[in-house]
């Protein structure tokens, strides 16, 4: 058994009826395929202090979804800690698009201090060419890659060594031990590219295990998978590593929580992955697009009722989402 007693409890103090009565499931059409998705489904819930998002990925089960719901309750019913900064630098996110499409994708983000490039969906040469194209277009940007666990140890070494200008590589290989082994191998080879853990934090039952195993130089934290802004803050503090706040492809309602977390971190070394609104073609509320490469903390944007109605998913998907909401709520109540 993992001892999680040092981690803040999940928020479980809102009745299911109240959540369900104020919830609507919508589909956000995307500009480019991302995570094999062209329509991101999310549930938006209106709480007494503002709009909140509940959007676990379709394949996530009840235990994981319960953490996402804890973040929803925090956003709509409790609120977030005070910001320590009023600008959060963000990265552009380049999906695994063909090299020739990179410039057009980057253009949607405006000027940014950093770029995250998705890799490990094609062959290694294509991955390397995509990243080199970004470096060519934005020579001064901090560049990181995200393989979403998709490389073997050998593939990761090959790609990272071919791209020595990288600032860091996010979850190049799966799991904590493989990450630790890769990090040690890169150091031994004289590489200065840092290792970031994402899935190993987001999906493990013990989010602090990465730091204990010295598997990464920094951790990627997402508000909903970690159960809310306050819970994520406490996990970062206990991990004692630099953190990058990223979007879980949230709508701009959910992005506001990510910006609140990034703004409340005592130390913010790297630009955050919170500019994903640029990947959506339509949103019900003012999209969280960066100005001069940064986002500003503030309350979640209020959806326009007409656009909300247009984006509303059909009845069968509403039922599916409401059922998920009920299941996640049941888990929260059981654990509370
Ligand atoms: O960090 C970013 O730039 C964007 C967010 C992102 O990549 C992402 C979005 C949804 C699900 C997983 C991930 C990920 O970081 O792996
Ligand atoms: Mg990632």
Question: Pairing-aware structural class of the strands and helices?
Answer: alpha/beta
**Lateral arrangement of strands in the main beta sheet:** 5-6-7-8-9-10-11
CATH superfamily of the largest domain: Enolase-like C-terminal domain
The ordered H/E elements are HEEEHEEHEHEHEHEHHEHEHEHH
Average pLDDT level? 96
Question: Based on CA inertia axes, which overall geometry fits?
Answer: globular
Tell how many strands the DSSP assignment holds. 12
Enzyme class: lyase
Catalytic activity: (1R,6R)-6-hydroxy-2-succinyl-cyclohexa-2,4-diene-1-carboxylate = 2-succinylbenzoate + H2O
Pathway: Quinol/quinone metabolism; menaquinone biosynthesis; Quinol/quinone metabolism; 1,4-dihydroxy-2-naphthoate biosynthesis; 1,4-dihydroxy-2-naphthoate from chorismate: step 4/7
Organism: Enteractinococcus helveticum
